[in-house]
Every structure is written in structure tokens, then in C-alpha cells.
Amino acid sequence: MLSENPDYKYFWPQFRAIPDSSLISSSVLRNFARTYMNALKKIVESLNNEQMPYDVLKRISAKHARHNIQVHHMQKMIKPLLENVRRTLGRHDENAERAWEKLFQTVGAIVEHYKTSQV
């Protein structure tokens, strides 16, 4: 994701001082990736609870809004995520990919809604 969109590293202060050549092997990126995947896991695991997905998405939306992350930024993250899902599963699963795409669209819409409702 960052190799295809190097300007994304400026959204997160912890990445700014790290040279592009060192970023891929940095513990900062590993910690960020772990946080990112844990947030996705929380969203997916909370889908059976009516209130919890809203709370999790609201918290994530607030963080994204603070960094001025927009829907198109999130949409660019779908492809690298799906590539990792395919690699991890060892196969292509069209239903799983559609579900991930829908999740990102939903999170993006909630981020946009949250940003406009905070004005």
C-alpha cells in the first residue's frame, strides 16, 4: 500500500521520519499493521452485536477524520488487503473479497458521515 501510495505515510506522524527504504522493515510499520488488522477483526467480530459495530466504527471514524483520511484513500487499501487475503488463504474466494470490499465501503461511508456530522 505505501509503496504504491508513498504520500500516505504523511497521514501518520509515526511514519514521517522513517525513510521510504527503511519503512517496510520497521517495527513502527509492523505495529501499525497489527493495529490495523486488529481493528478490522473487531469490526468483523462485532457484527452480531447491534451496538458494538457502531461504537467500533465511530471510534475508527473519529481517528480517520482527524487525519483527514477520505473514502478514496480507503478504497486504495482494498487491493493490497485482498492480495494478502488471497496469499494467506492460498486461494481466490470471490465471496470473501466482495465482503471485504463491502466492509471498506461501509467504513468509508461512516467516516464521511462522521466527518460531516462533527462540523
UniProtKB/TrEMBL annotation:
GO molecular function: heme binding; iron ion binding; oxidoreductase activity; oxygen binding; oxygen carrier activity
Domain of life the protein comes from: Eukaryota
Keywords assigned: Heme, Iron, Metal-binding, Oxygen transport, Transport
Record-annotated Globin domain positions: 1-108
Pfam families: Globin
Subunit structure comment from the entry: Monomer.
Family note: Belongs to the globin family.
Full protein name: Globin domain-containing protein
Organism placement in taxonomy: Eukaryota, Metazoa, Ecdysozoa, Nematoda, Chromadorea
